[in-house]
Every structure is written in C-alpha cells, then in structure tokens.
Amino acid sequence: MSGAPPDPRLEVLRRVEFLAVLEEEALSELCARSRRVRYRPGERILGELEAGADVFVVMEGRVEVSVESGAGGRYRLGELQPGAAFGEMSSLTGELHSASVDAITEVEALVIPDAEFDRLRERRPEVAVALVRLLGERLAGAERAVDELLEDRARADAPEPAAAGRLRRGSISRAWRELVVNRRRDLGFLAFAGFVATLLCVRVAVYVSFRLGVVASDLLRGAYLTGFALLGLSAASSLLVFRDPARRIIALAYGIACALILNELGVTLAFDIFFKDIHTADPTVPFDIERLYRRTEPVRAVLVALLVLVQAAYLRRFYRRAGFVLATRLRRLWVRREG
Amino acid sequence: MDLESVERVLASVSLFEQLRPDELARIARRFELLELREGQALEVGAAPGEQRLLVLLSGGAQLEVTLGGRTLRSSLDPGDRFGDTALVSGHPRPFRVVARRPAVLAALDRAGLDSLLHDFPAVGLPLAGELSSELRARDDAVRQLLELHAERFPADELASAVAERRRVLSRQRATVRRLAPRALFRRLVVEPEADPPFWMLVGFVVALGLARLTVFLILHYHLEAQLFALVPGKDPNPVHVHHFNYGLLLVAAAGLAALFPLGRRALRVLAFSFGAGCGLVFDEFALFWNLNPEYARASSLVASGIAAAALAQVVYFRRFWQALARRAWRGLRGWR
Fold it and tell me: Which fold has domain B3-137?
C-alpha cells in the first residue's frame, strides 16, 4: 500500500453522483483528459440557450444557477458547491443549456469535454445507469413542482419582476438618465442607438461626397453590402450567442446594419427602373445612382424602423403584457365557442 | 406469441437497439407477456409502485391518459411503448390501454427494470438521453409557470394561462414513444434538430427551393405582369420589389426578436425564419451584388451553395471545426 496522500481532486469527483461508480484509476484518467478552468467572481461559466455539451464539475468555490424571465428579470434557481456537476443534460441530448451558471466566488471547474463524456458512458455504461437514477429523481421532483404550480395557488414568494422602464416625473437630466443612461445595457436601446448614430454618420458622409462631386456609387454599394453582411451576421449571432457583453455588441451591430440598409433602400429597391426587362438596360434612361439614393422610399422605411426600434427599446414590457392578455382572452373565447 | 417474435419487436425499440441478439433473447424473457382480447382494457399505475413499462408486440391498442379531468387518447402500434418515465421517476401517472383488436403487450415493472439495468447497463445510455429530454420539458414548464405567477396577471387571465399550460403538459405526458428511427435519419435529422443551425439550414433550403421553383414557373409561363410585385410610379419602368427584400425583412425580424428572452421552441421558429430569409436573399445575390436584375446569373447559385455548405458544416461538423480551431489557437499561442 503506498503512503501517497489521496488526490483531493478525486475526492471531489467521487462526490458527483454519476461518477461515484468509477474506481480511482478511471477517475484519474478522466481528470487527465479534462481541463481545469478558473473563473473570477461574477464570471459567466455557461449561458442559458447557448449550445455546448461539455460537462462541468465544481472543484472549488460556489456557483449560481439562474434563468432569465421573459420580462427581462432573472430568477435564481440555486447554488452549487464543490462536488456538484452541471451540463450533463446537454451532453445527453445535444439540447441548448436551459439555465445560466455564474461564478459567485473564485471557482475552479473541471471541464469534461463532451466527446470524453460520451466515450465514458459508452465504455462504462454504469455511469449511464447512475445518470438514469439521478434523472429519475430529478424528474419526480420536477413532476411534483409542475403539479403544485398547476394547482394555481397564490405564490407570495414569487420574485417581483424588474422595474426597468418605469418613468418618473422630473427634470431633463432625470429623463436623460431614465431614457438613456439607465438603458445603456439594454439590447433594444443599443440597437436603436446604433441605428440612429449610423444613420446620421452615413447621411453626412454621402451628402459630403455628393457636394464634393466624388463618385458615391462605390461608397453606396459598399455601405449597403456591409449592411447586408452585418445584418446576416448579427441576426445569426443573436440566435446563437447568449453572453451579455457579446449580445450588446450584436445589438449594436444589428442597429448599424439596419441603418446602412434602410438609408439606401432606394438604391436596392428601385435599381431596375433603368432596365427594360431582366436582360436589357433601357438606353432611354441612363443609370443614375444619385437619383436612386434621393428617392422617398428610404425616408418612409427609416421612419417605420425608428418606430419599431423605439417600441422595442421602451415599450417591450407593455406589449408583452398586452399580448399575453389578448392571447389568453382569445383562447378563452375559442374554448368557450368550442365548448 | 413465441420468443423470437418478441425479440424481433424489442430489437426495434430504441432502448434495446444497441444489444446483441443473444442479449435481446435474455431480455425478452424478463418481460411479462399480457394478452388482451378486442375491447379489453388494462389499467396501469393506478396505485403507487404499480407503474409499468408497456411495449405493444402485436395487434393494435389505444392508450388513454386522464390528466386534469381530460382524457387524451393515442393509438399504439407494434413497437410503440409507454410508461418508462413514470416507471423510472416513481411519480404516479396512471394510464389505460384498450385493445382495438387482439393484442399482445410486453410489461416490465420497477424491479424488472432495476435488474435489467444492472445486468445490461448499455440500456442506460438511450434511457438517460430520453429522460433528459423529458426533464428538460418539465423544467421548461416549471419555469413558464413560475414566470406566469411572478408576472402578477389578473386572476382570471392567470387561471386561463395555467389551464393552457396544463393542456400542453398533458399532451407531453401522454406522448407515446414510437419505433426507433433509422440510423441515418437519426444522424441527419433527429440528433441535430435541437440546435438552431439545423433549423436555419432547413429554412434556407426550403426557401431557396421554393423561390427558384416559383420564379422558374413565372418566367416559363410568362406571368411576370400578373405575379411580380411591380409598383408603378413616375419612372418609365415600374419598381420591382424583388424577393430578397422580403428575405431581408425576415432576417431583420428574426434578429430583433432573438435579442430578447426566448424559449427553446421560439428560438427554433426564429432560426427557421432566419434561414428562410437568407434563402430568399441568397437566391437573388447577383441582383444586389451587381445592381443588375438578371436572375439567371451563376453567382447567385454559387453564393447560395457556399452559404448552404457553411450552414451544413455548422450543423453536422461543428465539433470537428471547433477542435481544429482550438488546436490552431493553442498552436498560435505556443508559437508566439
């Protein structure tokens, strides 16, 4: 028998319910094939709705599990201590993460790569059996929670939704604070701000280029093509990336893209007024990009976009509630009619 | 019913797919065979500890699950199964099976399942995956219900919304597990369908195909004047609203909606809309790239092909590219 002290990391891994069935050698191998990552307090370890199937084991420190509500608030679901694991359900199903996990203190986590966890389950199916038992217990708990909530009892302990967006009477500086400063992290506001700022810059740049007699066609073409690319990238990223700082950049990029496209909607919408059909340019009407740029369509489109973005930035909560009430009333009407 | 027939049906059940024929033969013996005459009913799980997993081996039957005073019915065909979630969780969820014609069922109780998992732990692999999906659905329901309560809606609105959630949950709880899908179909469709990029790819391909077909038919039958969106104005030629504009609108709407909190299902719908929008935009790539309305230019097809290939890489080969990127990043850091 060797006198070497037991590896504290293995002691922590042994506390993970579905890894407890493994012997020391297998746990050591798993440790060697996994990476150790440190997180600072407040740092996000994984984000809700993000793809990713690695399994995390808390080795040191504490983490918080939370979900974002539709109204923009955040619910705390619980706290995990060393020996707790998360991410195993995404590894099993390939589904997106259903909650966010943030470090409360300095955290060290062992990250078991998805492929390694797959291999472990296949080589050691007793891990899968332990998972079945664990999931069975969690499922029973979730079923009980669902049944209780369906009982429709008043939930006095339910957290108050965030009070963002509530305006008070007061000075211009207070309005500025409420409408701009307090919302500088709000994604709807950032999209709106990106839109307005870009629109102003591009309009000035194009105006100057026309005044100076510089050929603006390359500038205009470059701007709307950048807008198309940026819109595609930002919209795709908003469906795939769920980290807060990255999403703020995405929202800003989205606003910029919309401004670039809509400012030149006349160009992309009406360019073929200079063509007789889809094969022949009309010789009686010479192609004139400045004429396209000065059409009225972009002004109308910009106004509509401004209206939509202002609603998204400031009246989201109102529309959410109104939509909910309308939907439930319609549903009730429908059920009554069917009944 | 002979044991070989039982093995044959069990081999098509996703839980037992990975087992060898000799293991299937041993598993088949652990199931209790129940024969039902036409119209005969079997009550399962009415009392605690009486939960069972049932697999229909032959004949036809109807499953009846009563939840919240409402009875949901589904048909059962050979190879279909029900009751495994309640069996593993131990949460009472009674159901009834009524034979539509003479039927044979294979039944397994909790003790049988425990001994089966002990002797054939490989069964735990697919079972853990299925339970995870079930648990996710329940977790989502808990979250939605918590949100409903926290929003403090008027009592009657809240009651109506909770009733709607109850209906959805009842449908989920009464879902029958069907025969295992074929391996290729599972690899290409079932496994990646949880991921938004899969729905982007589906939307892209569907929209691109439909747009190509529609434009081809319009040009072939010379229906341009009737079906193209032509807006007359002061200009000698009308403004033609090309479908890449509708595509941009779809992409913009999906992108804006995705910036705000969503559920997984809504995310898939938005991913599909985004893909469909991209399909419409790429179908007319040459038009806005060259500011020339000629539809038949090859660059649209080339750009669409590149976009579809890129999406397919994300859907089916993401792990490979991620590993490659990680290795390249490590190499770069080492070099520096």
Answer: Jelly Rolls (2.60.120)
